[in-house]
Design brief:
8 strands
């Protein structure tokens, strides 16, 4: 599959073109399964993108015409790893700074988007598939929210240490 980079992560869902996700193409509405795959890969789970896409597609409302819904995504990922949920505004709670990684759900101005993230050594977070193709997007969660989220808050799912 040409959307996987040598490090095993997906940085650009547009390269998943041709992979069905419900009735739509993953390049258009696959950010939910891509975020789940990236997070599970970061945590060391041995799932392939095809496995995650196929099993998550069974949870899609409206056969995937509107993409992944936040509640089924939360329930699906929760079956695999402990997960906390919070709304994030202008600060990052300590527990998020100490997490293993997570998924952010936010409004881009055009639609809702899911992105996986992992902590860095500098107290920031590395974001995957947020800006398609950008492999080095690192910043704090409030900086990410301020720059990329068009609402005053975003939903953060995190895996505790």
């Amino acid at each position: 599959m040409n959307c996987i980079e040598p490090d095993g992560l997906i940085y650009d869902q547009r390269h998943c073109k041709g992979m069905a996700y419900g009735l739509r193409d993953s390049s258009k509405t696959g950010c939910g399964w891509v975020a789940c795959y990236n997070l599970l890969h970061l945590l060391g789970y041995p799932y392939t993108p095809q496995q995650v896409c196929k099993t998550m597609a069974a949870w899609l409302p409206f056969w995937g015409l509107i993409g992944t819904h936040v509640l089924p995504l939360y329930l699906w990922i929760r079956k695999h790893t402990p997960l906390r949920i919070c709304l994030l505004g202008n600060y990052t709670p300590i527990r998020l700074k100490q997490c293993k990684g997570g998924i952010v759900w936010y409004f881009t101005g055009k639609g809702f988007h899911f992105v996986a993230f992992s902590p860095t050594q500098k107290g920031e977070f590395h974001f995957y598939n947020a800006i398609y193709g950008n492999k080095n997007l690192c910043c704090t969660l409030p900086q990410f929210r301020k720059k990329y989220c068009q609402f005053p808050f975003m939903v953060v799912f995190s895996v505790p240490k």
